[in-house]
Amino acid sequence: xxxxxxxxxxxxxxxxxxxxxxxxxxxxxxxxxxxxxxxxxxxxxxxxxxxxxxxxxxxxxxxxxxxxxxxxxxxxxxxxxxxxxxxxxxxxxxxxxxxxxxxxxxxxxxxxxxxxxxxxxxxxxxxxxxxxxxxxxxxxxxxxxxxxxxxxxxxxxxxxxxxxxxxxxxxxxxxxxxxxxxxxxxxxxxxxxxxxxxxxxxxxxxxxxxxxxxxxxxxxxxxxxxxxxxxxxxxxxxxxxxxxxxxxxxxxxxxxxxxxxxxxxxxxxxxxxxxxxxxxxxxxxxxxxxxxxxxxxxxxxxxxxxxxxxxxxxxxxxxxxxxxxxxxxxxxxxxxxxxxxxxxxxxxxxxxxxxxxxxxxxxxxxxxxxxxxxxxxxxxxxxxxxxxxxxxxxxxxxxxxxxxxxxxxxxxxxxxxxxxxxxxxxxxxxxxxxxxxxxxxxxxxxxxxxxxxxxxxxxxxxxxxxxxxxxxxxxxxxxxxxx
Length: 483
Ligand code: NAD
Prior knowledge:
single chain, Aldehyde Dehydrogenase, Chain A, domain 1, seven-stranded mixed beta sheet, six-stranded mixed beta sheet, 16 helices, binds nicotinamide-adenine-dinucleotide, oxidoreductase
């Protein structure tokens, strides 16, 4: 297999020789073979990237000063260049993090262009400013200004879509961006940089500096950054929030989850299983909003435990590049061992009905694993596992199900399943969480996504996601001035 090698960094609109000397080696989690490398960014590279983003933002004729329709033209070119690379983007994501290729093709390949167009449309469809007749004699000119240079720090699990949850609204709003991808998924970020070059993004509007946690922390605290947008673990989010608190720097945090999938006692199981898989085990269990606590009514307990067990047993585990694969490997040996640690705990906390093993000698695979008879206080019900492991928790009444769902440190996703949509929506309204699905769960671009409690601060997607990259400004017009 040919490996994918880069020896330059995309900074200031062009490929430059990195200041750092290290390399990030990327390995396939399925075969453990080396699949490519990129230069490891150093602090001087972050300095250069922030300086380029700063210059592109601050120049009198810079990106921030452009009319929204002119930025939209550039972003449309960017969208087209990304679409021209969509299949390769999906392949790289799948090869690096084990995402099944059908999912990468459906999601990672298309979401970036979709979001660029959506946010360009929001910006061009709304007036940039308004004059409000005042109550005290004058009028007020109210505008939304881009917030400035954005540090975007992303994880490896859905790297392209998550990057564009930040890049698309930020660039459409007139901000400039320094992206720090996770070390596990740098090759797709470099393909995105190739698309940016081909699209002719003005110098400094987007910059990519790959590195680990230390480099991320350096970027977060950099004096040239105006806003931090982070997706990742709750532990890292807390560290970033501390830095931003000290600096009084605006920050958006999309963190972990331990959401509940509430199956009401009238659920139509056979009609629900496919969507239930997508809501609980998608991407090998490595998505923050998955409903990994499945709440099962006692009056249909055995039937539902059996059905979910059979569902898990039937999932094809294997090569993520095989279109038939439903469960690929976890991203790394570290993640595999972490998940195995939770499975060992689960054996003491519940009854394992299927899974629990490494199905192959090589690669970081774990079989889909189901624990029945789990209490909501168990470790495997409280902590985010980030693997294909579900806790099935019995409950009596709808009230009890709602109470269990809400008894969590997290509040990111969730779902309610019922043959009666009104009943399900009524339950969904009472779930304390940023998002809840009824009989399915899909992050629609038009609606805000984000968490409460330890799942984070702020929202992405929807107009609310754009607002995170804007600040309001008021000019008090002279008394009597009608504009
Ligand atoms: P992680 O927090 O270890 O790393 C995420 C990114 O942050 C990486 O780029 C990493 O290099 C960087 N980073 C880590 N510590 C940092 C620090 N102190 N300062 C600056 N940057 C730092 O997370 P991970 O293990 O890569 O990803 C899995 C986690 O991400 C899970 O907990 C998952 O729930 C969460 N996640 C959340 C969402 C969401 O939208 N809420 C989406 C996807 C993943």
